[in-house]
Design a protein that fits this description.
Structural class: mainly alpha
Distance between the termini: 33 Å
Helix content: 55-70%
């Protein structure tokens, strides 16, 4: 997770005390979500790993998605969806915080506009199979494109 450096203060609201949930029960819920959504996660990761995005990331940035990313995706995506979100939004968040973060793909001195435009195009093509829009990833790329100006 990426947390902002200086979060604005906010008032605390006192909530009534709730019955706790045991670690075992929480872990069982996580495992149930992972088991129930395994096929969908496999499909999404297949779209990601066989799509043009991975090729561009490797060729232009020398970045690949390793075993750690795979494990995180297999845990995070189904649990995120089970709590009311979408897998596409979860995948966007995971990619934005792990791959499209500053210094990895974006905000690099050696990245040109054409590199960023290539990854932007590949992301859009890959996302057709995922569904939705990769808002966070595109925002990172567009911010970097603005800082590079028109070349």
């Amino acid at each position: 997770m990426t947390l902002p450096r200086h979060e604005a203060e906010f008032p605390l609201i006192q909530l009534p005390r709730q019955q706790g949930i045991s670690w075992r029960s929480l872990k069982e819920c996580f495992e149930a979500a992972k088991s129930k959504r395994r096929v969908e996660v496999d499909r999404l990761l297949g779209e990601l790993t066989t799509g043009p995005l991975i090729k561009v990331l490797d060729e232009q940035f020398r970045i690949g998605l390793g075993n750690r990313f795979d494990r995180q995706a297999r845990s995070f995506l189904p649990v995120f969806e089970a709590t009311g979100g979408s897998m596409a939004t979860a995948l966007d968040h995971l990619l934005a915080s792990r791959v499209f973060r500053s210094g990895k793909v974006t905000a690099r001195y050696d990245t040109s506009r054409s590199n960023l435009e290539a990854v932007q195009t590949a992301l859009a093509q890959t996302w057709k199979g995922v569904g939705g829009t990769p808002v966070q990833c595109l925002s990172s790329i567009e911010t970097d494109l603005r800082t590079k100006g028109k070349a």
